[in-house]
Amino acid sequence: MSANFLNCFGLTAALCLGVTSAVHAAAAGQDFYNGKVIRIVVGFSAGGGFDTYARTLSRSMGKYIPGNPSVIVENMTGAGSLIAANHIYRVAKADGLTIGAFNGNHILGQLLGASATSFDPRKMEWMGAPGNNHDLCVLNQKTGIANAEQWLASKTPLKLAGSAPGTTTDDTAKVLKEAIGIPMRLISGYKGTADMRVAVEAGEVDGLCGFSWSSVRATWRKAVEAGQVTIVLQSAPKAHADLPKVPLSSSFAKTPEARQLIDAGVHQPSAMTYSYSLPPATPKERVQVLRKAFLQAVKDHDFLNDAAKANLEVAPSSGEEIEGAIQNMFKTPPAVVAKLKEVLK
């Protein structure tokens, strides 16, 4: 008597067939990874928050995938990680061996019809996110501006570093300029936040917006603690526990429309900024294997130790939660979408 027959004892033929198929599918998803190598394709240069998250995850995730495959990180820079996003959607094989780590703000770009955004997030598979993007505006102390009030009153626009249209560093700055009137001039084209930090410290630019607290903690905390750079704004629904005295951007919004613009253009995309994606049509059983392994890895003792050493903030979301957030974003009212198109053109 076969194991499958025993599993089906007492079931109808149709139910038995369903149970057997599910068992075979699960086994296929687990056996597949024996001896394989999984690539996490990071859309930014090494040394930034996206890269640090991915390398920390890569050291722990393989142990939770049946077959214990190797997990490596590759950097595919360009267009603020849009090249990597389009690669995951259009080029990467849908075999469960390639994971995308690109700026989730590009999902907003797809909603707005950005011409260079050639992927549909609703058709992709989502593994989860290790944290969210608690957006900040950070300025070089040499600007002489110590707080948001001084900045808003400044008659001289500050030069802010950006990566590319569709990224948080570009889009957050543009939304805040429209919604609350920060005087700024965007200098876009940097490959990642590691390059932007160097530019700020060298005085090439005055600061940047859309830089997450998790990234600042991991890569720039010493400069903050030394007073070399100052966090003047945080763009999130509520203040971070670590930053109770830094004002919210929305607190300077004078109209409901301005607050709605910040919510749709900054708060909602921030929930999916660090999301890990898989190509469309990736076999469901492999998606489930990776989702389960991800949620186990972000609770792993070694992962948490490595994250603490790197000053990474760990606040994971499941793949299902990311999917829900994406579906919700695509329900944004048409009037708000039209305004965002105008602001982020």
Show the helix and strand layout.
Blueprint: H1 3-7, H2 13-31, E1 37-42, H3 49-61, E2 70-75, H4 82-90, E3 98-101, H5 105-111, E4 125-129, E5 135-140, H6 148-153, E6 158-161, H7 168-180, E7 184-187, H8 193-201, E8 207-212, H9 213-219, H10 221-225, E9 229-235, H11 256-270, E10 276-278, H12 284-297, H13 301-309, E11 317-318, H14 319-329, H15 334-343
Parallel strand pairs: 1-2, 1-3, 6-7
Antiparallel strand pairs: 3-10, 4-10, 4-11, 5-8, 5-9
Number of distinct beta strands? 11
Number of helical stretches of at least 4 residues: 15
Strand content: 15-25%
Q: Helix fraction? A: 40-55%
User: What is the strand arrangement across the widest sheet?
Assistant: 2-1-3-10-4-11
Give the mean pLDDT.
90
CATH architecture of the largest domain: 3-Layer(aba) Sandwich
* CATH topology type of the largest domain: D-Maltodextrin-Binding Protein, domain 2
Number of domains: 2
Structural class: alpha/beta
Notes on the protein architecture:
The chain is of the alpha/beta class and 345 residues long. It has two domains: 28-132 and 272-332, 3-Layer(aba) Sandwich (D-Maltodextrin-Binding Protein, domain 2), CATH 3.40.190.150; 135-269, D-Maltodextrin-Binding Protein, domain 2 (3-Layer(aba) Sandwich), CATH 3.40.190.10. It has 15 helices and eleven strands. It has helices at residues 3-7, 13-31, 49-61, 82-90, 105-111, 148-153, 168-180, 193-201, 213-219, 221-225, 256-270, 284-297, 301-309, 319-329, 334-343; strands at 37-42, 70-75, 98-101, 125-129, 135-140, 158-161, 184-187, 207-212, 229-235, 276-278, 317-318. The strands form three sheets. Strands 2-1-3-10-4-11 form a six-stranded mixed β-sheet, sandwiched between helices. A three-stranded antiparallel β-sheet has the order 8-5-9. Helix 7 (168-180) links the parallel strand 6 (158-161) and strand 7 (184-187). Residues 1-6 and 18-26 have low confidence and may be disordered.
